[in-house]
Amino acid sequence: MNWIKSTLSYTVGTAEPEYGPEAIHPVTVQAGDKPYSVLTKDDLKWKAMQSTNVETQVFYLISPKGEVASIQIIYNNVAGLMVTCQLNVKIFNHNGKEHLWNSDPLENHCFTEDMNTLFADNLSIALNAEGDAYEIKSARNEAALIDLVVKRTAPGFQIGEDGTTYFGTDRSNPWGEMRHRFWARSAVTGTIRTAEKTYNFGTEGEVGRGVFIHAIQGMKPHHAAAKWNFVTFQTPTYSALMMEFTTPPSYASTRVNVGGIVTESGEILYAGGDNGAKYTETKEDPETLWPEPTSAEYTWGSRDGQFSAVLKGPLGERQDRIDVLYHIPGVIKSLVGGVVGTKPYIYQFADGPKDSLFLSVKNGDKKVEEKGTLFAEATFIS
Predict the structure, then answer these.
(1) Which neighbouring-strand residues pair with 36?
(2) Which pLDDT belongs to residue 12?
(3) In whole angstroms, what is the distance from residue 316 CA to residue 296 CA?
């Protein structure tokens, strides 16, 4: 009966019944036995599922001058009936004014035989033979011509054995999944060229910094999560990263938090699920009625108490507020459209008030505080 209910809700778009906590198997349970595993080249393959899912690769970029941009590829399958690919490119505070934002459908997308590289008309995102760098080239939209290389400088990781939370009462035969894999610290070289200027995100002599995330939502997005929190904080020595989602009541409002901290020298100091994200101050957004964060506290820690890290303070004025249903393609809207209470908005923050944010790291007897560059998102769905 649970399978019938879930199939009906996925197909028709109705809200799900409350299955209870036994219908979700958080990846943080895996982390109890194995906090994290290091990614191999095979772990970076596109899965390209044939059932309802949204699969993404996203690159967050920080130039040596502190300019912030993101590049995202979205592979979307609706009930095995229609597949689309989309390229999203964003440069914050373009020319000191509004953000540059392009969202373009991709034509004739395909994968290499090893599923590590995606091609489309005027675009390629190629993983190299060593599995440690992506070359991103795009002339899909002349408003942002991309020629970049993102090379990890610390091992990639996933939480637990496979980085995946499973949905369904039978763990061995799930009806949905949520998966995240991370490069928390990368060196960036190359450019994004716009009509007004060329953004230099790094050269061999002065590289930029990057974060790469490969994620899969193997079910309708509003069924998997009611809200999200994401943060990355890049300092000269450390790269901190955290991704958290909270399920709807259908899966007992379960909170799943994964993250880690790596160093400039290429060491994974910590990766696991003993983390927390909370907004210590909020204000009601009068247009959406969501509680817009104004201050946050993010914590990372290990169960043996040998490692902990804290990032807290004011987020500053939001950089952007994204009405997801306004921006995404119509075919993806069909995944969430018509569901009562679904009103997805993303609040984005970068840097916060100058010099107000420090990452405090305790590793054994060593304690360090460092300033850095923040990028954070708070997403409210239902």
Answers:
(1) 159
(2) 46
(3) 10
